[in-house]
């Protein structure tokens, strides 16, 4: 996890040091966190953080607003839960089934949605994800309103018992780091540069000879697959998969996490997810509905705060001094 | 008998299809008007529809004001709320990427819906059919509840009326001109910011009107808006937002398609509109009546 973004000029030496320190501190914090916090809460946070980072690959780096990412998140949760519980697959293979299923869904939905741009793209992804929701509501294997319950966590690679919450936590942390590393690799590759060029000026990317459609579809499928990774792990953490994860509210939540943390920043969604998950946990015990807060935060973010927390930090004097570059 | 389906059942579902189609048409019409001028997809449209129904219900239960006044008062109130929102908040987003408008109105929808759910719970409140429209008539081949006939006829009148206002009146010509080129229109001395406010208020009022019409048919519930808005989005994608008449026709067509699917293959009835959307995207990505945006 490096914090630099949109690097146009060569980095100076000092900021690299600062960023390495940030990275090391962040990792140390995540490794030690179970000593201070409830592990299930941390695992939930990591799953949603990975979800939001994967979503941001599409919104932040390709400029496509998907309103249907719940289909991939919840879909993968169903696939993994089914594979582990009904087929008796070990957790690592179960998660792979979830990822493959999400990538497949992503290919179908993406193929249809990239035929339109902008607002229409958002509406199409929302509608298709809603169609998948209705499919899950009626399909046999999802068990309808009940969802797939008591999914076994199993033994990782046959010998690590994941029902121990410490083992599970470090497994989730490992998956999270791998996921974010993949995203980092994608956005810093030549492929990622082309995605950013599509975000900045699609017409120009076309005129430069890139087949924008294929790149968009590829980005969409990658984002869906990584979302599936988060969804599959989440099914194992909570040991169930339900309709909540495929509903449009979930698609809205991940948008909020990304917006709140900072669209187009690698670690912004991590902060956004942290805030939203914490808030939900806090409000879960009270009578007050989370939706109102979520909605208000959305409005405030869009009106006053479009760069998000991390984006504002990058743009602040201190952030610039430390060498963080951010345009949006 | 038609294709092995009893005529009664067939006509009954056709009627339900037309009713749903009336709501799709009214709602997609409002969305298209707002989008045409403001370039904002109004995600709060469903919430405004719900507000309309709730205002009608509140007028009746708290003040004893019946259906007919509510049919005017509730849309006016929701239109007013819309105007305030446009003036104070939405206006700041016009210069940004249209996606921010979508996200803002999404947040607005969540807030409104959450508030009503907090205050009134998730279950629905019944709203009695007005006495003048209670009962039904026997048309010989089928039984038609009077209120349902009224909804179809009235929504058709409102849709065509709105279309006439936009296509044939002076105000409509200002609106259409401002859609094409707002800066030029403003330089002719027309108050474009006011037109924008008016348009948003009009769109919101149309949604609220649909809500009042829906109140006696469906229960008045805080979730009624979010259930319908996603379907209406699909309708709008199918129709394309380039034409007002296109939005109206597509709304009715898809409502009927949904109703007929209920006759022949009930399991698919709640996804048929999305399937049609997918097919239209494959064959004609710009939508049936759309110009590519």
UniProtKB/TrEMBL annotation, chain A:
Domain of life of the native organism: Bacteria
Sorted UniProt keywords: Cell membrane, Membrane, Transmembrane, Transmembrane helix
Entry-linked CDD domains: TM_PBP1_LivM_like
Segments crossing the lipid bilayer: 21-42, 48-81, 93-113, 119-137, 168-187, 217-242, 254-276, 288-305
Keyword Lyase: no
Taxonomy of the source species: Bacteria, Pseudomonadati, Pseudomonadota, Alphaproteobacteria, Hyphomicrobiales
Localisation per UniProt entry: Cell membrane
A Gene Ontology molecular function term of the record: branched-chain amino acid transmembrane transporter activity
Identification of the protein by name: Branched-chain amino acid ABC transporter permease
Membrane topology: Multi-pass membrane protein
CC annotations in GO: plasma membrane
